[in-house]
Every structure is written in structure tokens, then in C-alpha cells.
Design a protein that fits this description.
Blueprint (H helix, E strand, L loop, with lengths): L2 H12 L21 H14 L9
Length: about 60
Amino acid sequence: MTGKQELQKDILQRGGYQGDIAVEGYHDAVYCGERELEGQKMALEYLRKCGVNCEYGK
């Protein structure tokens, strides 16, 4: 785990959060219907750019 990931985990835990971060779809007014998967992939790529360790399709 990198220093950035440790910091993110520490911040979340201090706030009482103990779960996973999930990209949940089907709530976006723009990326809906045929564009749903596109929006979910964009969200996943954004989280990865922010340094969040995540997997797709888990």
C-alpha cells in the first residue's frame, strides 16, 4: 500500500468508515441507458487517477 493509500484509509477510518468504495451505477442523469457502462468506466478511471486502489467487476 502506498503512502497516499494509507492516508486515504486513515482519513476514512478516523471518520468511522469501514467499508469499501464502490462505483455504483444507475443514478446518473447523463450516463444512463446505453451510456451507463461508459459512465462507470469513467468513474473507475477517475478513482485510479486519484490513487485509489480499485478493481473492476468485483
